[in-house]
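WARN  no MSA supplied for this record, continuing single-sequence
INFO  ligand: pyridoxal-5'-phosphate
INFO  echoing inputs
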Amino acid sequence: MKDYASRTPISKALYQRAKRVLPAGVSYSIRYFEPYPFFAAKAKGSKLYDVDKNEYIDFWLGHTALILGHSPRQVMVAVKKQLENGTIYGTSHEQEVALAEQVVKMVPSAEMVRFTNSGTEANMYATRLARAFTGRDRIAKFLGGWHGGYDALHVGVKPPFGLPESAGLTQGALQDTILLPFNDLDGVEKKLKNEQPASIIIEPVLGAGGGIPVEKEFLKGLREFCDRKDILLIFDEVITGFRLAPGGGQEYYGVKPDITVLGKILGGGFPVGAFCASRKIMERIDNITYKRPKYSFHGGTFAANPVTMTAGLSTLRILEDGKVTRRLNRLGDKIKAEIQQVFGRKAIDVQTTGVGSLFNIHFTKERIKDPQAAFRADKKKAFDYNLTLIANGVFFLPTHSCALCTAHSEEDLETLLRETERYARHAK
Ligand SMILES: Cc1ncc(COP(=O)(O)O)c(C=O)c1O
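INFO  complex generated
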């Protein structure tokens, strides 16, 4: 903490200023960490620079959105050109069609797409669409699943699960959402024995819930269960989309959802979200074909703005052939194993989780199969490790899942391992 504070006096002063005008001094509560967050001044490639001129190797990567690193050249060239041609048209344009076509090409279950400005919004509209399509109110999600701040899904995210995640959620919202145990098919079947919700939403890898991968057999079983009970299966691929494979978690696991929610990488560094599904489901949003009460609304001022569409399209074109993803996944597997070994050599109990280029580090002996186990791990130790690394130029948002990008060099990864080794030596 002392090292961190001595390196970041200008950030400290900025934080005092920020606290006066931004609740908790931040624009998103998870971005606060003790004693105060550093304030970024610029970013390029794998590096983030703060106002005190410290350089950080970035493994948080804009909440894992930046698979090509900060401001990748190819994307920036396209975006700069687009900036000269307008930032929002408020009417139809070719870029939205081109990105929708690209999504349909890459995401196995997608036939039609609609764009939003965030993953939260996309989950909200996907949930509404599932309700509209099935004519049912109740929905189901998994304990530890994070789908953004929309009322119906902002339930059962963090322990204590019985307590509302936020004040201001109505009883109606809480009662309409059924909570399910992750990676436990018997548990799911039991919970839904006498229920037929509109949808079950799942992240192929629990992001905020600890980087925990879904087990393939469980996911297949869940798909069959949804088919049997005529429930729509929604994959929230806001993190896994275009990261686990060009077609996301559904390609990686070989299981297709009914509705897919996308975000992060899709925006190429700009605000985005999207939801996609078969034509039959998505057509409920078509206000020419469907009228009230069957029609399901979606829209927004900045929806499919041409800057985001341009950035997204150039990013997806780079990811399309899968070369980048395969290389990052290999690197991710290697780095997870090496981090585990570094702590193992010092007899410090650590479990790494994540799939491919996503990873998380938990200080616990217990194998992590569900979010409850992740939440039982020692968060204080994780925080201490993360803050020590930040003070030495390696940025993970403390206790959160992090990721690799194409801009990370061998040297960046060596630095991560060297600093981890140094930390483990001292912690021991
Ligand atoms: C799996 C998942 N779904 C949805 C969201 C919400 O997306 P956004 O923050 O863009 O609203 C997130 C954000 O981290 C996420 O990880």
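The mean pLDDT is 97.
INFO  checksum written, moving to next record
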